[in-house]
Specification:
- The complex is a heterodimer of chains A (about 500) and B (about 350).
- Chain A has 19 helices and 20 strands.
- In chain A, the strands form four sheets. In chain A, strands 6-7-8-3-9-10 form a six-stranded mixed sheet, sandwiched between helices.
- Chain A is α/β, with parallel strands linked by helices.
- Chain A is globular.
- In chain A, a hairpin with a 2-residue loop joins strand 19 and strand 20.
- Helices cover about 35% and strands about 25% of the residues of chain A.
- With about 350 residues, chain B is α/β, with parallel strands linked by helices.
- A four-stranded mixed sheet of chain B has the order 2-1-3-4, sandwiched between helices.
- In chain B, a hairpin with a 2-residue loop joins strand 3 and strand 4.
- The two termini of chain B are about 25 Å apart.
Chain lengths: ~500, ~350
């Protein structure tokens, strides 16, 4: 039996950048094959070549027995492609999106219903809702339905679960399992290790080269330093707040009965908690649980409907502009100006927080030296790899030494090694006395926090140190704690 | 703080592959092309003549039509029907029929301006020919009542002189209205505005930093346009240049505010540009830039009281063409300032860093 995907010596250059260099591998029919590697490894380029969107400079590739250069038409009829960024039309409803993609492939939703039933039935009750109003997990299911509606034989998934909470991710991979039973070949890339382990075989790409191929455990073990970097030892951990408590005993964030309602929907439903100075506070929750809304109220972007709260001593209802002077913020969406250079971005944000020219210049040099980034001082931000952008965005958000920094999913879509470096920066900041308030979907990162809260349906259903929570719910790790709590959600997760 | 924000805007404009070129190209196209094409003067009107009389007088009249620089003589036709067929064919615009010393002028009025102006020119020629004829017969008949027309301030009815100040209005509209609007909505789409909103930047600083660069660019473009008007057409401002710039800035205040208000209520580029165009087209057509406001229906004329473009066009033509000073435009200055302040107040009020 022929292989579903056959890649022979494929190379691709963008100008002088070698995106892929002599890559060869094959994927058997009905296999779930993982494509892993750091940012900029060439994964997306490979997908685009296989989907006939790009022509390789050298080498050949076949999909389902058809050549990607000469037989584009046949291939396009047989593959489903889910690009990393959502491919849905945000202002069409669920049903309209599905119908649109069915029409594109010359079929109808009714004709293709059998192939998507298992997945689509989970979101069918929201058929009249706009795709833009769905939560991350639901969008994922819809995008998968759209990619499957024409019954493809090969499915390409380019980081399909970035920014999706652990429970939804598990459901997503369970669905991929059912597709395999129907004989659909799946090529998927992912930055999550638990997802890597669910593939039958994986290929590890690094800077355009194929470094290894084999069973997930073998590859992960072989390149352990990249995928499973040693845990971070926290300097001075455990004694974070203790010595300072005598001198400055206050909580940096205090929230009492905070509510944010949009009409009759309570996005944030009566939450109360406090965060101590110098603490790393993990703010977890499934997609749509209300994390971002809560964070917007704390950072002065939104007014609470009711309840009270203070951040660095200022009232979130009346003194939001005071709060903004003393906090840093890094959002889910990338927050530096892409068309400015590294130094210009730092200068802009330094200036906004009222720092003087010479102070900015001095601290810029210090910062870039510490990040070992001096060479790229005058590079445009748009030319940097994602991991670097995120590290830089974080450094800029604490450039003015704020009392507390808010990080909204700062490591979405970043590979494990870069994430580890990112957390070293967070620990540095915490050691300097900056309180860190962070949301994340990576449960290994949750373990790095001093204390965490887990939000379910707009309420905080658990709060405490990672160890306390594991003990209280009798679970082996944070992933299980999260899954255990998030599965109790009653509102439709969105 | 605002210094850094303005610096950022200029850097972003400079990095843009397209904007700097546009800023240079813009005044050149506007000043070197538009004054020629925006002329309301009608030339090259095609005339067919049907002469049943064949007298000396009628022949002389036909020669005059032939000689006029406004007309292209399409030849004589045997009958009115034949001439009409030419009009229907699109090869002729106006018919001149001469029968028993009487004249009939029939103009194709599908293009109203061309038809109207063409028949008006033709009747002038006919009238003057008749006059000569009368003179020839009875030299002593004396002068009948004669009218005289005196075109004040623009003696030769030079449309370029009339149109150039109006082009300034269009420059201000595009440079200070559209560019900042699209810039702000662009930041919304990219998500960077959220980052700015959690910083202590004041509303005023943020908005001014968005506007000042474009105002400077707009004034720069106007200066180049003035220089071009002088070097290419030899047209200079009759009044004080100070008032030209003051008026331009007041108009900029209005258009910037309108743009900001629209950007504050829009989430996408598409929505912003569409709404902006809607208002701009209404403002332009109701401003008196192309058609005199007094001849509009009364209800439409009333809207010109709140149309800043109307005041601007009035005032800038007064300054530029007539050389009027402060006293001549004080009414327009006050109106522009009032509308500008009202709109900018709304613009700042509708921008929310905290909702």
């Amino acid at each position: 039996m022929a292989n579903a995907i056959e890649v022979q010596g494929v190379s691709k250059m963008y100008g002088r950048v070698q995106a892929l260099e002599d890559v060869s591998f094959s994927v058997g029919k009905g296999e779930v094959f993982g494509l892993i590697g750091p940012d900029g490894a060439g994964k997306t380029t490979l997908y685009r070549i296989l989907c006939t969107l790009l022509l390789p400079d050298a080498g050949t590739a076949t999909v389902d027995g058809f050549d990607t250069v000469r037989q584009m038409r046949e291939i396009r009829r047989r593959v489903g492609y889910m690009p990393g960024r959502f491919s849905l039309y945000q202002d069409l409803t669920v049903e309209e999106n599905l119908q649109f993609f069915a029409t594109l492939f010359g079929t109808t939703v009714e004709a293709g219903y059998d192939s998507i039933r298992a997945i689509y039935s989970q979101i069918e009750r929201f058929r009249d809702r706009k795709a833009g109003a769905l939560s991350g997990g639901m969008k994922q299911k819809l995008a998968l339905s759209c990619a499957l509606v024409h019954s493809p034989s090969v499915l390409f998934l380019d980081e399909p679960t970035t920014g999706v909470d652990p429970v939804s991710r598990k459901e997503f991979w369970d669905m991929l399992g059912t597709l395999k039973e129907r004989g659909i070949t799946i090529l998927a890339s992912t930055p999550y290790l638990d997802e890597v382990r669910r593939c039958e075989r994986v290929a590890f790409l690094d800077r355009g080269r194929l470094r290894g191929i084999g069973a997930p455990e073998v590859i992960l073990e072989q390149f352990r330093d990249i995928f499973n970097p040693p845990g971070i030892e926290r300097r001075g951990a455990g004694c974070v707040a203790a010595p300072q408590q005598s001198t400055r005993p206050e909580n940096v964030i205090e929230v009492e009965h905070l509510v944010k309602a949009f009409g009759s929907f309570h996005a944030v439903d009566d939450i109360s908690f406090s965060v101590k100075r110098g603490e790393i506070f993990g703010f977890l929750g499934a997609n749509g649980a209300g994390k971002t809304t809560a964070m917007h109220m704390l950072t002065g972007l939104n007014q609470p409907t009711s309840g009270t709260g203070t951040v660095v001593g200022y009232d979130i209802r009346t003194q939001h502009e005071q709060i903004k002077k003393h906090i840093g913020y890094m959002s889910q969406k990338f927050s530096l100006y892409e068309d400015l250079t590294v130094a210009e971005n730092i200068r802009l944000f330094g200036g906004i927080y009222g720092m003087k020219d010479d102070e900015i210049a001095r601290k810029t040099d210090e910062l870039l030296e510490r990040l070992k980034f001096d060479d790229h001082k005058n590079d445009l931000v748009s030319s940097l790899p994602l991991g670097w952008k995120q590290k830089l965005a974080f450094s800029v958000s604490i450039f003015h030494e704020p009392g507390v920094v808010f990080l909204d999913e700062p490591t979405g879509g970043v590979d494990p090694a870069t994430r580890r470096q990112f957390w070293e920066l967070i620990y540095d900041a915490a050691a300097r006395g900056i309180t860190v308030f962070v949301t994340t979907h990576y449960m290994d990162e949750a373990e790095y926090c001093d204390r965490i809260s887990i939000m379910v349906d707009g309420k905080i259903s658990a709060i405490g140190t990672p160890d306390e929570l594991k003990r209280r719910f009798h679970q082996p790790d944070m992933d299980h704690v999260f899954t255990y709590l998030a599965r109790q959600a009653t509102r439709s997760a969105d | 703080m605002i210094k850094y924000l303005i610096q950022k805007e200029f850097l972003q404009i400079r990095r843009n592959a397209f904007l700097p070129r546009l800023i240079i190209l813009f005044p050149i196209v506007i000043m070197c092309v538009m004054p020629w094409v925006m002329s309301m003067e009608v030339k090259n009107i095609r005339v067919s003549v049907v002469d049943h009389d064949r007298t000396t007088q009628s022949q002389r009249l036909v020669h005059q039509v032939e000689a006029s620089r406004y007309f292209i003589f399409c030849g004589q036709e045997p009958s009115y029907q034949a001439a009409l067929a030419q009009v229907e064919h699109g090869t002729s615009d106006v018919i001149l029929e001469i029968k028993d010393g009487q004249y009939l002028i029939a103009a194709n009025a599908v293009n109203g301006t061309k038809g109207g102006m063409g028949s008006a020119y033709l009747s002038q020629i006919v009238a003057s020919a008749m006059e000569k004829q009368v003179d020839g017969k009875t030299a002593l008949a004396g002068n009948g009542p004669q009218g005289a027309v005196l075109f004040l301030y623009n003696k030769h009815q030079n449309y370029k002189l009339y149109m150039i100040p109006a082009l300034f209005a269009i420059i201000m509209m595009l440079m200070t209205g559209f560019l900042p609007t699209l810039n702000i909505v662009g930041e919304k789409e990219a998500g960077t505005i959220e980052q700015i909103n959690v910083t202590p930047v004041s509303k005023w600083a943020f908005i001014l930093a968005k506007l000042i660069p474009y105002w400077i660019i707009a004034l720069f473009v106007i200066t180049i346009s003035l220089l071009l008007a002088w070097s290419v057409y030899g047209i200079t401002c009759a009044g004080s240049l100070l008032w030209v710039y003051v008026l331009a800035l007041l108009l900029a205040l209005f258009f910037s505010s309108l743009g900001l208000i629209i950007s504050n209520y829009s989430d996408t580029m598409q929505q912003a540009i569409f709404v902006m165009w809607f208002f701009v087209v209404c403002i332009l057509l109701l401003s008196g830039l192309f058609t005199p406001t007094r001849s509009m229906p009364h209800w439409a004329y009333l809207t010109t009281y709140v149309n800043p473009m109307h005041y601007f066009i009035d005032a800038i033509r007064t300054v530029f063409v007539r050389g009027g000073g402060f006293a001549a435009i004080v009414h327009q200055l006050i109106a522009l300032l009032a509308i500008g302040i009202l709109m900018s107040g709304w613009a700042v009020q509708s921008y929310k860093k905290n909702s």
